[in-house]
Design a protein that fits this description.
mainly alpha; ABC transporter involved in vitamin B12 uptake, BtuC; 12 helices
Length: 277
């Protein structure tokens, strides 16, 4: 990591590059942004905005389970519960007659309530309130390494399942008729989304994680002309908004996560207006 710091300090001759926490946050953004840009495209295609929001709000239940089970590393219980909830929601949504919005809303509200109930017992909720807004400036070198490994794994998985997911998003029945195991690929996708969302919550925040996943992809969809351009544009917008938002927050002394989302929202509205013209 010291070599990386030295290289960045020489390549980026800015005042913020002198601070190790800012360099760590900068690297983290370069890793998180592509993840959100990639996964967001399929989330938008499949109208899963509420789904990712439900995963974010269920974080408190994941933390609560970790506390009850005595798991010291909160990230383990967060990711495990996120994956479990994602699979349950997907199964109930596909098997039942209830609308997907209703199913997601039920699971989301229930998981939030249970998590808050457990964590607020004895007045200990204040210890976990930081998860609401996140703090990307607190990211450590070990966590950066985990993000890097996650990005590589997601890219590999995405290269293997993207085309099939694209067919499923266009027409589920058509995909099934071509021998594509729709349930298997949907489960793989929601597991990947759950892992990425839950890993990122600590730095982005429960209240903002859904926006960071959806806004870049939604903005890209406004101007992209085909699926390949859509994916590339989403990643680029996510990177630009992530880096610019981080730097604006540094010089403006504002919340990094909130600033990144605000920039992303501005880009979305700009692309929406441009599309309408």
């Amino acid at each position: 990591m010291n070599l990386i710091y030295d290289v960045l300090s020489s390549v980026l001759p800015f005042s913020w590059a002198d601070y190790k926490f800012m360099v760590n946050a900068f690297i983290a953004v370069l890793l998180i942004a592509p993840l959100m840009g990639i996964l967001g495209t399929m989330a938008v295609n499949n109208k899963m905005a509420f789904f990712s929001d439900a995963l974010g709000h269920s974080a408190f239940t994941g933390i609560a389970l970790g506390v009850l089970l005595g798991i010291k590393n909160e990230m383990i219980s967060l990711v495990a519960f996120g994956v479990f909830l994602a699979l349950i929601i997907t199964r109930v949504k596909n098997k039942g007659n209830t609308s997907s919005d209703t199913v997601i809303s039920v699971f989301s509200s229930t998981s939030v309530a249970v998590g808050l109930l457990v964590l607020s017992y004895g007045g200990s909720f204040s210890k976990y309130s930081a998860y609401l807004v996140g703090d990307i400036l607190s990211v450590t070198e070990t966590e950066i390494l985990c993000l890097f490994i996650t990005l590589i794994v997601v890219i590999i998985i995405w290269s293997l399942i993207y085309n099939k997911l694209l067919v499923i998003s266009v027409n589920r029945e058509l995909a099934a008729s071509r021998g594509i195991k729709t349930a298997v690929y949907e489960n793989i996708f929601v597991i990947v989304v759950a892992v990425v969302v839950m890993m990122s919550i600590k730095w982005v925040g429960i209240l903002l994680i859904n926006s960071l996943l959806i806004l870049p992809a939604a903005a890209a969809r406004n101007i992209a002309k085909n699926s390949r351009q859509y994916l590339a544009t989403s990643v680029i917008i996510s990177l630009v908004c992530g880096v610019s938002g981080l730097l604006i927050s540094f010089y403006g002394d504002t919340s990094a996560g909130a600033t990144i989302v605000t920039v992303s929202a501005a880009v979305f509205f700009a692309t929406y207006i441009f599309r309408k013209k």
